[in-house]
Amino acid sequence: DIRAYELIDKVRNSANKFMVDYVYPRNPFGITSTTLRNIPVSLENSVTCLIRERKTIQIPKEMILKNKNLVAKYKVVVPAAVGGTKAVRDFLPVNQFFIVDPQIVLSETYIIIGVFDTRQDAEKLLSFLKTTFCRYFIGLRKLTQHLSRDCWKWVPLVDFSQNWDDDKVFDLFDFTKDERLHIQKKVAEWS
User: pLDDT (tens digit, 9 = 90+) per residue, 37-82?
Assistant: First the structure.
């Protein structure tokens, strides 16, 4: 995208923080696919774990190796790998972002974008993630099926105490009508 650099600069000159510093690293609870193969039969002290294709299984709580403080939170998540059907770019469909309820942990299949005490607060982050604006800046860095933390480098960290839509976020960064149309066109091409 030939206009990407000017748009990135516009955001970088306005934003103080970026999502790359907010998104959790890969495998947030330390639960790998390999460890899921050997689950004990007795699950008296278990927790629900979200695995690939949004399926759930019960696992012993002892399998949670890190971020135990996140178990009781609402988690906004996305698959760690998504796409692979387009030859041009592996883009991120809007329906891949979703909220996971408290007392559910994640396998390495997912990454956590944010954690919250209430569903309402999680929905505010979700509203931002679904904007064309956000998806454009993710898309500039997401060139494979993998959605690494690095893909969030140009996505600004905004105020998650409010709901977001394209007009609101474009206004925040003072994007012109032409810049808005360019981003919408690019996202449509990538989708």
Answer: 777 666 778 899 999 888 898 999 989 999 999 999 999 999 887 7
| Integer Cα distance of 65 and 127 in angstroms | 30
What is the token pair recorded at 132? 């064309």
pTM of the model: 0.89
The answer to whether residues 154 and 18 touch, using CB atoms and an 8 Å cutoff, is yes
Q: Give the pair of three-digit tokens for residue 36.
A: 């899921």
At 27 the three-state DSSP class reads coil
For 7, what's the count of Cα atoms within 13 Å in the CB-facing half-sphere?
Answer: 24
| Cβ-based neighbours of 190, under 8 Å, separated by 6 or more | 86, 88, 89, 91, 139
Q: Write the DSSP symbol of residue 145.
A: S
* Cβ-based burial of 29 (10 A; exposed 0-12, middle 13-18, buried ≥19): buried
Please tell me the distance from the alpha carbon of residue 47 to that of residue 59, in angstroms, as a whole number: 6
Say how far apart CA 44 and CA 155 lie, in whole Å. 42
Helix (H, G, I), strand (E, B) or coil at 112: strand
CA-based nearest residue to 64, from 93, 107, 17: 107
- Residue 139 phi, psi dihedral angles, 5° rounding: -60, -30
